[in-house]
Amino acid sequence: MIGQIIINGLLNGAVYALVAVGLSLTWGVMDIVNFAHGEFLLWGLYSSFWIWALMGLDPLISLPIVVVLIFALGVLTYLVVIKRVLKVSGLTALLATFGLSMVLKNLTQFFWTANYRNVTKPLVSNQSFNIFGMYIRQDYVVAAAGALLLTLLVTLFLNRTKTGVAIKATSINKSAAQLVGIDTNRIYAITFGLSGACVGAAAALMASFTPIYPEACSLYSTLAFVIVALGGFGNIKGALFAGLIVGVVEALGGYFIGTSFKYLVVFLIYLIVMQIRPRGLFGW
Amino acid sequence: MLKVNDLVLGYDNVPVVFGVSLEVREKEVVAIVGSNGAGKTTILRGLSGLIRPMEGSIEFMGEDITRTPAHKLVKMGISHVPEGRQLFGKLTVRQNLMMGAYTLKDEAAKKDALDQVFTLFPRLKEREDQAAETFSGGEQQMLAIARGMMSKPKLLMIDEMSLGLAPVLVDRVMDSLKEIRATGITVLIVEQKVKEALELADRGYVLATGRILQEGSSAELLESDVVKKAYLGM
Predict the structure, then answer these.
(1) What DSSP element (H or E) covers B220?
(2) Which of A87, A175, A180, A184 should we substitute to test contact with B (largest number of B Cβ atoms within 10 Å)?
(3) Cα(A254)–Cα(A218) distance, rounded to whole angstroms?
(4) pTM
(5) Which candidate from B82, B88, B151 shows the least CB-CB separation from A181?
(6) B106 CB neighbour count, 10 Å cutoff
(7) Which terminus of chain B is less hemmed in, N or C, by CB atoms within 10 Å?
(8) Which of B47, B74, B85, B88 should we substitute to test contact with A (largest number of A Cβ atoms within 10 Å)?
(9) What is the pLDDT of residues B152-187, one digit of tens each?
(10) Backbone phi and psi for residue B186, each to the nearest 5 degrees, phi listed first
(11) How far is CA B67 from CA A31, A88, B50, B155, B205, in A?
């Protein structure tokens, strides 16, 4: 039974991790807390849904399209909202993204109403298969595997490509990056796009089994903040492990304490870790 | 090569450099010397585009670069090795160097630049996979200069390369500058160590409280009363 719970937690956690990796990118590189991150995920879900509803493409098939769309949303957000407030110190950037999150959420409700929507008859069904006496849902497995793969791709991009290393260099020392010829403005735009691409992919992976409505992503957004803080800012590996931990803790808490209290356990652990190790479990 | 006219620089609209004019000619080594707080670093930050001049103009190879942003100046051939090294500490030596070559598009040119800095600083090649932050001060300074060389600059500007180094290392880093100059790169250095800098340079400018007190050939400056009294303690 415990094994079953832990497996379920890990499967959920992998998707949480991908959402958190996206948040971690902007937070770690640009020191910008993007409150609209959850709404990026939301627009990813609706993109998946509408592509399915109008064109009949399964969310898993249309994943690349949604990734590109939310990448563009990220770049646009940087150019229109963030770039202007970056020079101003203090809470301005924070308030700007908070405002953006309100706007995006309410636009969602305005355009597509508050009704629940579901992708029916998805490519990978919600049937379970049995391994060692544990029942595992195949759509969760596909989503988790996809999330892990994409997290790995992001890591490889950051470590192996010229643009990826330039993103890291900019996060370590912005003015030194400018002095070697890096256009930090461009790097910031790409980073915001990449952050969007991560949530776009996460949205596509979970669209077939998640009810889609304007409030669908509040929880994911909050969990992403917890995961990034737990994992250490700007640390992809940290976000991955913290995501898996949060998934498992949530599942165990739901089983032993009660479903309605499962997040209590998650946030309690977060509070305790922050007291003992403020830079996060895997922070620099 | 570089012409600076009546440059006024400052932070938050408070000027700290008041109308400085100077010139660097091709293949020269020029030193800006002066004590801490004289505005030397601010001048370099203005020249490399990190801060916008409040007044005055900067010209490089006949082009006005007064308002050109830092990353474009690197492409034009100006490289600035900042005070306090400012390395990418978590990245490896090789990654730091490759970031230095960020503006080079051609793979052969990158390899060429890498070979050149490895010949100049063999120590870096031995430890190319090590994170820059694990280096000692002297090694970090060499890496910082090497990173600055990776963009194949026409003009290399180095800020306080002796800062925080043991005297023996100061000599070694200064020696490497002689080799760099032999490759035909024009060099502008900014230094608190007035004597060492002037012995290395062809010409110099003495800066105090944001103004140029005196300029001339290094030999003249080393003999001048201003320098002798204020900086050499004679």
Answers:
(1) helix B218-223
(2) A180
(3) 19
(4) 0.90
(5) B151
(6) 9
(7) C
(8) B88
(9) 999 999 999 888 788 888 888 888 888 899 888 999
(10) -80, 140
(11) 27, 21, 10, 18, 24
Cα B205 to Cα A69: distance, rounded to the nearest angstrom: 55
Class of B2-85+153-230 per CATH? Answer: alpha beta
Both structure tokens of A164 = 């990826």
Please tell me the distance from the alpha carbon of residue B204 to that of residue B165, in angstroms, as a whole number: 22
Q: How far apart are CA B198 and CA A114, in angstroms?
A: 74
Is A165 part of the contact surface with chain B (CB cutoff 8 Å)?
yes
B-chain residues near A183 (CB < 8 A): 69, 71
Write the pLDDT tens digit of every residue in B19-71. 999 999 999 999 999 988 899 999 999 999 999 999 999 999 999 999 999 99
Residues of B in CB contact (< 8 Å) with A are 48-50, 69-72, 74-75, 79-80, 82, 86-91, 95, 98-100, 102-103, 147-148, 150-151
- For residue B223, the surrounding DSSP H or E stretch is helix B218-223
Write the single-letter amino acid at B51: I
Beta strand pairing call for A134-137 and B14-24: unpaired
Is residue B225 a contact partner of residue B232, using CB atoms and an 8 Å limit?
A: no
